[in-house]
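Structure in, sequence out. Go:
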C-alpha cells in the first residue's frame, strides 16, 4: 500500500504515473527495452522527448516565442546561469528576498553581477513578503528575480505583488520550483521561469527552463557550455546525454495533468486542499501557522505544535499512520506538509484526521 508522502521534494508522484511507469518498465511499447536503456538519439526516445515537451507546452499554455529547455544541475545551477546568460559583471540585477531560496539565488548571482536587493533579507525566514511600499527597484536592472514560493516557510507571492513586479517593465524571472503548474499562469508575463523537477514535475535530476526567445544569445563569453541556454535551445536540450528516464517520467506527469482536467482543475483541488488544512490549523487551538494569512502557500503548509516537546511523538505516530515526511525544514523547525499536485485530497483529509486525533489525545 502506498502511503501519503508529504515530503517537500523529491516528492510524491501520482499513483497513476507510477503504475504506468511500472507497466512499461521492462518493455516500452514492444521495443524489448526500458526507456532507461534507450539511446537518447533513437527514434523511439526522440518521440518520447517530443511528446513530453508538447504536453508541457499544452498544460502550461506556453507561447510559441518561448523555448523550453530541459537542463542539468537542478534549480540551483540556474542561480548562476541566470546572471551568466543575461548580464555582464558590471550590470545591475534586481532580487526580492523572501527567504532561504531567494538568499541562495542572490548569493550566487552576486558572483556574476551587481545585485540590488529590492527588499528583504533582514531575517532568514520571513513570514511575510516585504511590504510593497518598501521595495526599491533600480532604474537600470537587467532583470527582476523572485522566488514565487518559498518552500521552507510556505510563503507565496500573490497577484498583488506580482502585478507590481510586472509593472516595472523589466524582464521578470521566477524560481517556481515549488509552485510550477499549481495554478494557471500567464507565461507571457515572465521572461524566464525555472524549476527543479522533484516537486510538481517528476523525479529529481531534471530542471526546466522556460525562456523567451529574445533573451537567448546574450550569454557571457565565459559561460560554461552546459550553463548556456543557447546551447540547450540549439540542441533540443541534447548537447550531451540528458536525464532520459527523468524526462520520460516528467512526460507521464504532464500527460496525467492533461487527462485529469488540466492545470485549471488541479488548481481548484489545490485550493480546496490548502484551505481545509489551514482552516483546521487555525481553528485547532493546538497547531499554528505563522505565515501572513493572505500569503500562505498553497503547496507547502507549515505548522507548529502548541508544545514542541510533542514533535517527536507527532512524527513517529504520523509515520505509523502512513503519513510520511512531515518534519519541517531544519532552518524553520516545526512541521511541514507539502501538498503538491500529486497529493490526493484524501491525503489531506487523512492528515487532518490524524492531527485531530493527536490533538485530542495530547490536549
Ligand atoms: N528553489 C526552490 C524554491 C526550492 O524549493 C529548491 C529545492 O528545494 C531549489 C530552488 C533548489 O532546487 P535543486 O535542488 O533542484 O537545485
Amino acid at each position: 500500500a502506498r502511503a501519503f508522502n508529504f515530503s517537500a521534494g523529491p516528492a510524491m508522484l501520482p499513483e497513476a504515473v507510477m503504475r504506468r511507469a511500472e507497466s512499461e518498465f521492462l518493455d516500452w511499447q514492444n521495443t524489448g527495452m526500458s526507456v532507461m536503456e534507450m539511446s537518447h538519439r533513437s527514434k523511439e526516445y526522440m518521440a518520447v522527448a517530443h511528446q513530453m515537451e508538447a504536453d508541457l507546452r499544452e498544460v502550461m499554455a506556453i507561447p510559441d516565442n518561448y523555448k523550453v529547455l530541459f537542463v542539468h544541475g537542478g534549480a540551483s545551477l540556474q542561480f548562476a546561469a541566470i546572471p551568466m546568460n543575461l548580464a555582464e559583471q558590471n550590470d545591475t540585477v534586481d532580487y526580492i528576498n523572501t527567504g532561504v531560496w531567494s538568499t541562495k539565488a542572490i548569493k550566487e548571482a552576486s558572483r556574476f553581477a551587481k545585485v540590488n536587493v529590492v527588499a528583504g533579507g533582514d531575517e532568514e525566514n520571513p513570514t511575510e513578503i516585504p511590504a510593497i511600499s518598501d521595495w526599491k527597484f533600480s532604474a537600470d536592472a537587467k532583470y527582476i528575480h523572485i522566488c514565487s514560493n518559498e518552500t521552507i516557510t510556505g510563503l507565496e507571492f500573490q497577484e498583488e505583488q506580482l502585478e507590481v513586479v510586472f509593472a516595472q517593465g523589466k524582464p521578470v524571472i521566477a524560481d517556481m520550483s515549488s509552485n510550477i503548474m499549481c495554478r494557471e499562469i500567464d507565461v507571457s508575463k515572465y521572461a524566464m521561469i525555472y524549476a527543479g523537477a522533484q516537486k510538481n514535475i517528476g523525479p529529481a535530476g531534471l530542471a526546466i527552463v522556460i525562456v523567451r526567445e529574445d533573451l537567448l544569445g546574450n550569454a557571457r563569453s565565459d559561460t560554461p557550455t552546459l550553463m548556456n541556454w543557447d546551447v540547450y535551445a540549439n540542441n533540443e536540450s541534447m548537447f550531451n546525454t540528458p536525464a532520459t528516464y527523468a524526462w520520460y517520467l516528467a512526460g507521464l506527469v504532464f500527460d496525467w495533468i492533461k487527462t485529469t482536467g488540466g492545470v485549471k482543475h488541479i488548481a481548484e483541488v489545490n485550493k480546496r486542499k490548502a484551505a481545509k488544512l489551514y482552516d483546521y490549523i487555525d481553528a485547532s487551538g493546538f497547531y499554528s501557522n505563522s505565515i501572513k494569512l493572505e500569503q500562505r502557500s498553497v503547496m507547502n503548509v507549515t505548522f507548529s505544535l502548541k508544545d514542541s516537546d510533542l514533535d517527536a511523538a507527532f512524527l513517529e505516530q504520523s509515520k505509523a499512520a502512513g503519513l510520511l515526511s512531515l518534519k519541517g525544514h531544519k532552518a524553520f523547525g516545526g512541521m511541514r506538509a507539502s501538498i503538491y499536485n500529486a497529493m490526493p485530497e484524501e491525503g489531506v483529509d487523512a492528515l487532518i484526521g490524524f492531527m485531530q486525533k493527536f490533538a485530542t489525545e495530547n490536549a
